[in-house]
Amino acid sequence: MISPLACIDPGAKIGANVTIHPFVYIEKDVEIGDNCVLMPHVSVLNGTRMGKGNTVYHNAVLGSTPQDFHFKGDKTELIIGDNNSIRENVVIARATRAGDATRIGNNNFLMEGAHLCHDVKVNNYCVLGINSTVTGGCILDDYTILCSSVTLLQYCHTGTLSFIQSGCRISKDVPPYTIMSGNPAAYHGVSSVLLKHLNTTESVMRHITMAYRLVYQANFSVQDAVLKIKDQVPMSPEIQTIIDFISSSKRGIVK
Q1: 111 Ramachandran zone, left/alpha/beta (phi>0; psi -120 to 50)
Q2: Model pLDDT, residue 219
């Protein structure tokens, strides 16, 4: 069902079984996949590519012009995957430079008022809490959870299954499987509840805890802690993920 009160450029590509409510605004260079639902007053702007099964709620703006002084009017994109829930007043900007894209994966839940700036990459099964802000160039790995009013500063990287509590201001990378809290943000433990949801074994969760004791509680440098993890903690895909993340961090991890 497409409301006659929606404003849709004839050049937009609309898939099958798409529901577009009154007062939706869709520009020319837009693609919307099958089975999407756009609630009233949604704006979908040039450069937006949306997959299947997404629901976009009232007053959300997708593909807005980057709030970046480096933006010179280049043709850039916002690419959204499948089965995402994008709640009221969410704003997602497209990329800054030609050929680049802001990317949202599959099965994410973006709560009311979340703001995703230019060149952000959100992978799959992430939750962005009410009024959270993800600034330019940030990367969120699978199953990242941001509680309400979290701010990720430019180029931060959050590891898989990381959990960042309300009000945190993050300026460095957040390692996988960790909980961050406070302001300034600091390590607050292992996200065991999330790990259990993915059927992680008790022994692997103990090993993850051992690894982060070496990083955060053993008074080693980060580099030495990584060496200690390799020597002292039984290897598993999860431990290798921790080692790879910390070793490749360009900004350094939250301490």
Answers
A1: beta
A2: 87
The series of mean pLDDT values per 10 residues for the chain, 255 residues long, is 96 98 98 98 98 98 96 96 98 96 98 98 98 98 98 97 97 98 94 93 96 93 95 96 96 93
Are 107 and 124 a contacting pair, CB within 8 Å?
Answer: yes
116 touches 136 (CB < 8 A)? no
Per DSSP, the three-state class of 187 is strand
Helices (H) and strands (E) in the chain, counts: 4, 27
Residue 253 has what DSSP assignment? Answer: B
Distance from C-alpha of 191 to C-alpha of 205, rounded to nearest angstrom: 9
Q: Are 95 and 117 in contact (CB under 8 A)?
A: no
CA gap 69, 106 in Å, rounded: 30
Answer yes or no: are the C-beta atoms of 62 and 27 closer than 8 Å: no
Q: How many CA atoms lie less than 13 Å away from 34 in the CB half-sphere?
A: 1
The token pair at 156 is 């931060």
What's at 22, amino acid-wise? P
How much is the pLDDT for 255?
Answer: 85
Q: Which residue has the tokens 């409301």?
A: 3
Cβ-based neighbours of 72, under 8 Å, separated by 6 or more:
none
Which residues belong to the active site? 118-119, 136
Backbone angles phi, psi at 43, to 5 degrees: -120, 125
